[in-house]
Amino acid sequence: EPEVTQTPSHQVTQMGQEVILRCVPISNHLYFYWYRQILGQKVEFLVSFYNNEISEKSEIFDDQFSVERPDGSNFTLKIRSTKLEDSAMYFCASSVLAGGHGTDTQYFGPGTRLTVL
Amino acid sequence: GNSVTQMEGPVTLSEEAFLTINCTYTATGYPSLFWYVQYPGEGLQLLLKATKADDKGSNKGFEATYRKETTSFHLEKGSVQVSDSAVYFCALTPRGTGNQFYFGTGTSLTVIP
Questions:
Q1: Is the dihedral of CA A52, A37, B8, B85 positive or negative?
Q2: pLDDT at residue A101 in the model
């Protein structure tokens, strides 16, 4: 069964450093998403991406964040200058595009745990 | 706005006990409702969903019914197993493709033999 994959599973970085989190969505999906979950808190939406541009983003997704689909398979989240409060589990998700019944299910990857020291 | 309120955990049950995890929601439109499960060390897996009022989603012995009148989507299972130990997330998305999901805080379930 196709699945969303994410690398790395755990990333440790120093405050102020740039990190890139990578995701490979399900191959025939066209909508991509990033969410994060700070320990003990809700899973929060960051951004959605369709047709090579951001379609929706939350207040969390400020200028320090960017997303990119550099090739036909990868979808990346970049944090330019990490802060302590960026420490969280980051989930990538994807969904199909059809516009009809049952197309709104999002399929999630296993997550990348980001630790900022 | 859109939000999901989920029963606080953790929940500990003995094997074969009955499980209910409460979930209520507020939504600006007519959302689709979901339960996701996260097993230790793994990602969020879709457990079941319902897209309209009175629909019942079911999978692996779990069920949840979309109750528009009470804005609820409670998860139930008649007889839990040790392998059901996981964190369960209730979520909603506004109708249509490409909209963000709104999650509850998650309920940790531990089933003891």
A1: positive
A2: 47
A residues 45-104 closer than 8 Å to B (CB):
45, 48, 50, 55-56, 58, 91, 93, 95-99, 101-104
Nearest to B97 among A35, A44, A99 (CB): A99
Lowest mean per-residue pLDDT among A14-23, A90-99, A103-112, B16-25: A90-99
Query: Among A10, A28, A29, A42, which would you mutate to test the B interface (most chain B Cβ atoms within 10 Å of its Cβ)?
Result: A42
Please write the tens of the pLDDT for every residue from B33-54. Answer: 999 999 987 888 999 999 889 9
